[in-house]
Design brief:
This protein has 98 residues and is an alpha+beta fold. The chain has two helices and four strands; from the N terminus they run αβββαβ.
């Protein structure tokens, strides 16, 4: 049954997302950040990742494919109102190291 197995997109997407989170956690920690997952920014918003180093606060949101302009603007406004920096990473556009 495994011969010729085609991995379904839902599994690629799920595990690619988890790999990106794991690498970002490692990368930010190596740069001296304290990092949290699913961190509440407001009553209606949780950051995928929230990195803190000194006075620097970075909200990292992971998206898959594109995000609507309205959603992006709303997110930018909420994050900016809190005085945080926003980084958006499109997981569908990451490349694998060779």
């Amino acid at each position: 049954m495994a011969a010729g197995l085609v991995i379904k997109k839902q599994y690629v997407r799920k595990h690619l997302f988890m790999m990106v989170v794991e690498q970002l956690l490692d990368d930010y920690r190596q740069e001296g950040y304290e990092i949290k997952t699913q961190y509440p920014i407001s009553d209606s918003l949780r950051a995928d990742l929230f990195a803190v180093r000194g006075n620097e606060r970075v909200v990292i949101e992971l998206v898959y494919d594109s995000v609507s302009a309205d959603n992006l603007n709303h997110l930018k406004q909420m994050v900016s109102a809190e005085g945080f920096t926003l980084k958006i990473i499109d997981v569908s556009k990451v490349t694998l190291e060779r």
